[in-house]
Amino acid sequence: MELIQEHADVRAYLAADETIDHRHPLVRETADALWTASGGDAYAYAEAAYEFVRDTVPHSGDSGDMRVTWRASDVLATRNGICHAKSHALVALLRTRGLPAALCYQRLTEDDGSQPLLHGLIALRLPGRGGWARLDPRGNKPGVNARFDLEREQLAFPVRPELGEVDYPTLYAAPHAGALTALRESADRPELWRKLPTAL
Question: In the record, which residues are listed under signal peptide (predicted)?
């Protein structure tokens, strides 16, 4: 699939905002520690940041945590979030070190095609490595084995077109408005499941 930048200027994918708050002290502190641990290499840092978010911030659907986070710094502070929130945190960590990172989405369903939902993931563009590569920091569990691989995509959920699932090709610089509104306006995760968009 060809990924399509929402903005032609790649600098849009380095921006900070209220959600991707990569100037927040906690985001910077976390990024600094990961940068030091990775030896100051951009590829190693990107992989370390990915694995940090994937593995140390439990997906609240797996952990049972009812809290809803949406701001990157809050995701890191509470170590909690759904796929969208975890993606916000990873994008913030990548942008902190000047690595262009985008938000992207899939429409997924249950195995019978019911209960569609909008799943959030990210795309990364490392200098000197060509184009964008999608990564899914959702968190692994039995049946889910997402990996950091910039050559051969290994996402948490490959789409099943026969069930109406969709890979959306657009790379967003900021969270999609519908998903972000649902995150911000939900008091708990059950309410969030009801409010999240089912498609773009």
Answer: none
Beta carbons within 8 Å of 36's beta carbon, 6+ residues apart:
none
Residues 6 or more apart whose Cβ sits within 8 Å of residue 55: 139, 140
Encode pLDDT of 13-29 as tens digits: 999 999 999 999 999 99
Query: Are the beta carbons of 45 and 97 closer than 8 angstroms?
Result: yes
Domains, the chain, ordered by start: 4-195 (3.10.620)
Element (H, E) at 37: helix 25-37
What residue type is assigned to position 188 of the chain? Answer: D
Strand (E) or helix (H) holding 107: strand 101-108
CA atoms within 13 A on the CB side of 194: 6
- DSSP string across 42-100: HHHHHHHHHHHHHHHS-BHHHH-------SHHHHHHHT-B-HHHHHHHHHHHHHHTT--
pTM above 0.85, yes or no: yes
Residue 101 per-residue DSSP state = E
